[in-house]
Amino acid sequence: MATAKGAAFLCFSTLCVILWSSRPVFAQTKPAFACDIEANPSLKNFRFCDTSLDVKFRVDDLVKRLTLQEKIGWIVNTAKGVSRLGIPDYQWWSEILHGISFIGPGSKFMGTVPAATSFPQVILTAATFNVSLFEAVGKAVSTEARAMYNEGLAGLTFWSPNVNIYRDPRWGRGQETPGEDPLLTSRYGAAYVRGLQQRDDGDKEKLKIAACCKHYTAYDLEDWKGFRRYNFNALVSQQDLDDTFNPPFKSCVLDGNVASVMCSYNQINGRPTCGDRDLLYGVIRGKWKLNGSVCIYCDSIHEMFNSQKLRETPEETAALALNAGLDLNCGSSLTNFTQGAVDRGLVNETVISRAVSNNFATMMRLGFFDGNPKNHLYGNLGAKDICTTPTREFAREVARQGFVLLKNTEGSLPLSSTAIKSLAVIGPNAAATEAMLGSYFGVPCKYTSPLEAIKASVSSVLYQPGCADVWCATPQVEDAKRISSEADAVVLIMGLNQNIEAEALDRMNVTLPGQQELLITEVAKVCKGPLILVIMSGGSLDIQFAKDNPKVCSILWVGYPGEAGGAAIADVLFGLYNPGGRLPMTWYPQSYVDMVNMSNMNFRPNPATGFPGRTYRFYKGKTVYPFGYGLSYSAFSHHLIEAPEFVTMPLEEAHVCRTSTCKSIDAVEQYCKNLAFYIHLGVKNTGKFSGKETVFLFSSPPQVHNAPQKQLIEFEKLHLMPQEEGSVRFKIDICKHLSVVDETGKWKVALGQHILHVGSLKHSLNWSIVSVESFSARKGKKMGHRNSKHESSEEPTDGSSSEASRVQRLRLRLHRHSRRFRRYRRGTDSDSTAAKLLKEGEFAGIALLRIITAEMKFKDKWLACVTLGEQTFRTAISDHTDRPIWNSEKKLLLEKNGAHSARISVFETNRMSKNNLVGFCEIDLYDFLTRDSDSDVEVYDLLHVSSPTGVVGKISLSCFIEDYNEDGHLSFPEFSNLIDAFGNLLAANKKEDLFKAADENGDGVVSVDELAMLLAVEQEKDPLLTCCPVCGETLPVSDRLNSMIHLTLCFDEGTGNMVMTGGFLTDKQAVNGFQDQINLSEIKYPLEHFKTFNEFFIRELKAGSRPIANLECDNVAVCAADSRLTAFRTATDSMRFWIKGRKYSVKGLLGTEVCSDAFSAGSLVIFRLAPQDYHRFHVPVSGKIEKFVDIPGCLYTVNPIAVNSKYCNVFTENKRVVSLISTEDFGKVAFVAIGATMVGSITFLKKEGDYVKKGDEFGYFSFGGSTVICVFEKDTIKIDDDLLEKSERSLETLVSVGMKLGVSIKKGAYTEFPNVEACVIGE
């Protein structure tokens, strides 16, 4: 990684790799760690060894004990131990790009660990476009890294991943990157970092291993025509820096919480990246708030002095880097020159303390200062956990998912292993082993070459290498033609290797090396069956000749596929796997690189110079294959389900763009907050093979600020069976997804027409600005998705008290300018339209809604129910008639940016205590109040419940704005009317007291601010708005038990059919009610499938939406429900959960038939399901179901549906069923399902005697929020510490089905390996 001029530094030529792999090593009997109190008890007196203290306190304690020389010893990669403090030597430098590498002195393959799993090179993994897989790979390799550390053969800090943009196809290290697209690279970097760093116990402060995103920034040239990376001055525009080069690093820090960022060799615009305070301290630590250290490329300080000649002395150069924000040096420069820099006053010792503090903080988070790692999480890992069968098989799966099918003539691939009697295999990469690994490789567990795997698939294989090596200087054409003419089919495996593209080695062209093209062409002339061309390479190649040659039937790009690459190739060739990878980079023709200098860093084209631009985002010229290209053995179609056509941004009157023409608006939160919308796409597999489809969502913004011609804004991978249909729903954030960077580096949202692309589909989205007052709701393309609810963006952000925030919110809801419209005067025809709102910004205040009459299709008694947001009311019951007259009016609070879609439901009520929903209509009050009509009355169709196109009657309504008096204050009569409208009898009986309480200044009227204060205060005591959400009946606050009974009856005897406002779900309500709480894309059926709330509660999920932790290991218990979890070590601890004096015991919970002493003294976990949760529960452990026991009686539990509701009693008498599961690892486990009420139903999908596997679906609740409780026998489970810790602080933890709950004490801890099945959504 450094020049030959620095004798202590490495280059990565083949020779140096050999030298590193053959260098002498010395066995280490244990891992390096500090604070070994077991061996040296005196260390316990040091506060930095006290694990109960926070990291900062421990670091401060440690640093203040160090001398300057000791500090300097810990700002270099070969850190010097401090024996007097019990701190050993440590080597920071290890690599884990796609598996543990032998590059870097921190990792050694020897003794108990001769090898580790080698996954595909990054460019191929990126071609999967599968974010969950990116993270799973990180998790797998970090487990092996931890195991190697425990064996004393690796460290805990790894300098990976590489998130540079693959700017030019000739770059030798493009293979190490996720490709040319900033979004894909950002997603890969953050996901891989999470996989490497996140611990299985969920502790976000601690690290499994420490990752490092490199090389920051604009680094993508090795050695090209005299330009060398060590002194290359990259001339980069601020626009390119901020919209292309830097986003992956930003995502690493903000989304991945990476522990380190590495700066690069090169300069940017004359300033070295590792000596640029603006780039390091200003951006990484200042803007992005890096929680970790900034390290340096080996050995950049040496190159800054010797090659770049930035300072007169090495001490000045060292000071330049340290003062810029560097924390850790790879190499010896800081060891040699820091003391001198301090002595000369070039750098202050406080800067050294800052650097070493950042480094020690990382080591603290890794557990390096926590004593013997054997006593902590991952302490049980060792050699047995490296090169395991599941991990190696996972590497094979990753390769298969990444392969890109570039060409496939019908009838070519897949090959039939039975129909083909003889197969010719030709090419310099056919027998590849090490070449399959790519750069930064380690020692693989076992190679499977393509030739070896193909021989295992076909009875007769004829093999010729065709070339001596990939240079193919003298092709063996005749031998290759001979076997090709004899075989039923030919597989040519050609391409590149590390002798042609690698670190310190750029290509001069993008054609196949030597005479490879000749060999392919000649073989194609004589083959009698299909010819399959397999390209093994990291970079793109100009293979237009093969694409155009009809005798070349199929082309498959396999990247560098890792140790199992050969087996993966055979799987795809013979149809055991359907390829679904997509190209993460553009494949250019040779003519492109002939005209473009690699040293030109620009992305945007320049017509004046003829520069054509770079990557699919800016290059408009001819390509061999475009970014995102890839075929499948199947075919997929797309159709648009939902997408808005118009989106508007509200701007205040003072904004400059309100008075002058703007082409874009600053993409800042104050403008974009709550302006997200959804793109809903249908996907169908129209072919005969099951397969994976990557759905790309591209945007072409208006062409301002030299914006990209097209850019990827979202993607998702689906697995579909033949003829199966699925859907993808993207949530699009205006500022995040549709913004571009202007010429000065500022993010902007361009005004005008944005074109959205999905495959061949195109959809126009028009983006414009409006005044805040006339801010219009977005309209959906198909389902009428006009969002009827927006959160106010005017929330206080100054950290004020919760009461002040409440008051401010209510003030915003009520505030409006009384001068903007006149007061409605009842009975004054000439002024009948005076109360109409003029602009939506005025949609706030009090509206009078009147339900007048209806016409029904048969006679009965009727009532109507109105809902607006959380407000409800109902009319009186009409006479027995088909023309009910109600003339019922109520006042509604209209909230600024709040709900304005009201629902009127009509019930036939001529039954005992039963209301039967007959019809409904929805009214947009904003449209109603702004319509241009001479009449104040509108007639609406009442739609049939089960068939929204059917009409069961008509209903007449009117709506007006009730204004305050002209000065914007409420007199007592007006205040009295307002309280009556709230429907709270208790409040109505104390109106005078409330008026006095509100009128703080005693002026005899209540202002808007005073009313807001009253509502905020009273809402916390006895809510003023208290009524049944179904029928509108007033619920006395003082009689909570009867209120709960009333609600139970109103909810249609607990079946859920009458939940909330009439018992069924419309598209508009579902989208507006659930979109921010529920991931609709994981639901098995589309939204329109559900006709009732209850159907939605018990919705099914797509297969694989809830991965099960450690599926094959029964000694790990998992979470039973999507829920809020509270865990208790002992059942006694749980007593505090059952409050207000309710008598409770485990015996009462389980019943005498199930309960035992072991359960009474055991552990207990509560899963509380909220109404919006997935309402199916799953088995937490594997075992046999012994029995089900229905528990009658009156256990009062916390009712989940009531916890966050002002309508319901928190304590509810519940229906309960206890199932007893007998297990090998946990003994007996009692599984308690508790319905939301005594009449709520619980349906089990298993029966007594069934053997169940953890994660299996067990049953579902049919009503509201419910509860599951698992009781384990004493001393059988160790519940995860973080779950217990949060529960001890009375905090609930949001969990999903299948998440790890705890491990059997009998079996001990388990090492988790990636679940391949969980790596693809929907598979």
Automatic annotation (TrEMBL):
One of its GO terms (molecular function) is calcium ion binding. Pathway: Lipid metabolism; Phospholipid metabolism; phosphatidylethanolamine biosynthesis. This is phosphatidylserine decarboxylase. GO terms for cellular component: apoplast. Its EC number is 4.1.1.65. Its cofactor is pyruvate. PROSITE patterns: C2 (PS50004), EF_HAND_1 (PS00018), EF_HAND_2 (PS50222). It is an enzyme of class 4 (lyase). Residues 986-1021 form the EF-hand domain. It comes from Dorcoceras hygrometricum.
